[in-house]
Amino acid sequence: MAILVASRSPSLRQLRARCRFERGEVEEGMGDLHHVLQMRPGDTDPRVLISATTFYGLGDFDNGLAQIRKCLHSDPDSKVCKKLHKQQKLIQKTYTKAQGQLNKGQSTTAGRTLIGNAEEPGLVAKIREQVEELRQDGRIPAKARTRLYEQAVEMVCQAYSESNHREAQKYCDETLQHDSQSFWGLVHRAKVLLKKDELEAAIEALNEAAAARPDKQDKVNPILKKAQVALKHSKTKDYYKVLGVARDADERQIKSAYRKASKQYHPDKAAKQGVGKEQAEKKMASINEAYEVLSDPELRARFDSGDDPNSQERTNPFQGQPFPGGKPFMFQQQGGQANFKFHFGGGGGGPFGF
């Protein structure tokens, strides 16, 4: 009530500002300090608090620096104002540098700028150290958020996620703790879920990311399409799973997996393992079908884009043929003994002459 009567009392305004800071009402508290400066424009203490909280707490470089310049204008010899001005200028310069590196796709370089090394700490450590010191000195309210630090952590998340750094998960988890709608945090979460084949959850995370940053569709859409195609495959047939290879497997890995699977389900060996003739034939048919698609760059590209070359709507070149080349194994029974003869045709089927 007192401030309503004596609204132009600097001491009452400062007292209410402290109370508001204690309740976490940071912007309201700074509003009171602005009133104090209108009455006492040469007072540097409110100016320092407003500058530090605006710069580090709100992540607003321009207004934070504008306030500390006014502090220096009021008292050019102020050591506190000089120090804070120097720190803020260096932080702004490094932040802008890291942002530029990310914009150019230099994610590895940006990661070094943000994290640094044993000899020279990076941007994140410098912000954290300066914020801790300013809090201890009462120049940033204890309950004020530090959005500048949060933004820097999200930049690390982006840099490490794009460069597949082993610590990407650590920083992306942290950025999601700060902001559950962090764009880069959600994108990295989706990439992790995609690797785990948790496809619906990955798509949900990507849709959240797209809603949070509509201007970043170019970053979301390629991953979203990949997840949608994988989900479609999961509900039909997945040639990668048939051969037991990753989606980014190279030609050598695909050939190796094909040879291993073919040997395992070759009717001779399958029979010894208790696998029936019909089951072995079906398994071999699916193995050969998968290999024919994944070993052909054009067919594989179609499959990866969601178009199965062997879908029911198309002519299936393997229908009724468990082996490439259209030459199935021959079964003959003589004298009570089963004799198998295998003919792997030379029509461009399997690459291994069994």
Structure report:
Residues 238-307 form the J domain. This is DnaJ and TPR domain protein. It comes from Ophiocordyceps sinensis (strain Co18 / CGMCC 3.14243) (Yarsagumba caterpillar fungus). The chain has 354 residues and is mainly α. Among the domains are: 180-235, no CATH class; 240-309 and 322-327, Helix Hairpins (Orthogonal Bundle), CATH 1.10.287.110. Helices cover 65% and strands 3% of the residues. It has 18 helices and 2 strands. Strands 1-2 form a two-stranded antiparallel ribbon. α5 packs antiparallel against α6 and α10 (168-178) packs across α11. The model is unreliable at 1-6 and 315-354 (pLDDT under 50).
Please describe the structure with a list of short key phrases separated by commas or semicolons.
signal; endoplasmic reticulum; 2 strands; Helix Hairpins; mainly alpha; DnaJ and TPR domain protein; misfolded protein binding; 3% strand; protein-folding chaperone binding; 18 helices; 354 residues
Structural class: mainly alpha
Strand order of the largest sheet: 1-2
What characterizes the major β-sheet? 2 strands, antiparallel
Shape: elongated
Helix and strand run = HHHHHHHHHHHHHHHHHHEE
By oligomeric state, this entry counts as: single chain
CATH topology of the domain at 240-309 and 322-327: Helix Hairpins
Distance between the ends? 95 Å
The CATH class of the domain at 240-309 and 322-327 is Mainly Alpha
Helix content: 55-70%
Mean pLDDT: 84
The tally of beta strands, per DSSP, is 2
Tally of helical runs: 18
Low-confidence parts: 1-6, 315-354
The CATH homologous superfamily of the domain at 240-309 and 322-327 corresponds to DnaJ domain
Cα radius of gyration in angstroms = 32 Å
